[in-house]
Specification:
Blueprint (H helix, E strand, L loop, with lengths): L4 H13 L2 H8 L3 H15 L4 E2 L5 E2 L1 H23 L8 E7 L1 H6 L1 H5 L5 E7 L6 H5 L5 E4 L8 E15 L1 H7 L6 H4 L4 E3 L6 H9 L8 E3 L3 H10 L4 E4 H10 L3 E2 L6 E10 L3 H18 L9
Helix pairs in contact: 1-2, 1-3, 1-4, 2-3
Length: about 300
């Protein structure tokens, strides 16, 4: 089966913008043309590619086809840099990245490769590699060390987390120290249903892993703000809270009980040459802002 890239471009525009109308405006064609191109592509593939709704979402096959178009664009962009006669165009990369990496260091790396456009998928570090397995992204920041099939895995260092809360919160909920009884009733912050960092820390440092009352707050910076305001305690990335630790606005629940999560850059081996500028930027910035492997806790 030969793919028509005008049809793939329509599919990608729908998934990127969330609607047929916005996709038409993005590509400068009529909404009817977008619908016809998608219909033709779905008939050719033999299955639905878009789940109609508000917003429109891609089926698994639809997302993989859109990712294929991005990969072609990346290769064309790399070729244009080598062959000056070709007109370069910005390639769009779909990358899975952790929320804490996005809030601390990843954007600094992305900014060092200005000729790329990014479609960032945010997921937990223990699950971001799944996007690579499904072929929906070309690279991922992940805690998964073993190379995914067809990918190279590069160690980046470790994100250091500190269990922190405001002094007023600690005085209220832990007047006699952080005990098993107190931690079971003290409100905790949870990023989402995949977040296990708080439970891992409790098990390692208190010997229990209860299910305290919790706030669900899917924002790295929101986590910090909630801790400052005394809503709860949570595992915060050290780079985000260093000024607050230095000022005393936040305090560790227990001194010297940091938790380090090793991170890896997994990227498509087939696209290694085209991804090289971004991979170099990611490695460079990560080496500056993450904890080195030698310093990370074992």
């Amino acid at each position: 089966m030969q793919l028509d890239y005008a049809h793939l471009t329509a599919l990608a525009a729908i998934l990127r913008s969330g609607s047929f109308e916005a996709a038409a405006a993005d590509l400068g064609v009529t909404q009817s043309a977008i619908s016809q191109r998608l219909k033709t592509l779905e008939e050719r593939v033999g299955m639905p590619l878009v789940l109609r709704g508000s917003p429109c979402r891609g089926t698994e096959t639809g997302r993989r086809l859109a990712a294929h178009l991005d990969q072609v664009g990346l290769l064309e962009g790399a070729l244009a840099r080598d062959l000056k006669a070709l007109s370069p165009r910005s390639a769009r990369l779909r990358i899975a990245v952790t929320a804490d990496s996005l809030s601390t260091w990843f954007l600094t790396a992305a900014a060092q490769v200005p000729d790329l456009l990014f479609d960032l998928v945010v997921d937990d570090q223990d699950f971001s590699a799944d996007w690579l397995r499904r072929g929906e992204v070309v690279a991922a920041v992940t805690a998964h060390e073993a190379p995914i099939a067809g990918c190279d895995s590069t160690p980046l260092g470790a994100m250091r987390y500190v269990a922190t809360a405001s002094p007023a919160y600690i005085a209220r909920h832990f007047p006699s120290g952080v005990t098993a009884e107190a931690i079971a009733t003290a409100p905790v912050l949870i990023f989402d249903e995949k977040d296990r960092l708080q439970h891992i820390w409790m098990a390692q440092n208190i010997g229990v892993s209860p299910t305290p009352p919790s706030h669900r707050l899917p924002s790295s910076t929101g986590f910090v703000e909630a801790c400052l305001l005394g809503l709860g305690w949570g595992m915060n990335p050290e780079p985000l809270i260093r000024p607050h630790l230095d000022s005393g606005a936040l305090r560790p629940l227990i001194a010297d009980t940091t938790y380090d999560t090793p991170l890896f850059w997994q990227s498509s081996r087939l696209l290694a040459s085209a991804l090289a500028p971004l991979t170099q930027a990611v490695r460079r910035v990560a080496s500056q802002q993450l904890i080195s492997a030698k310093s990370a806790q074992k």
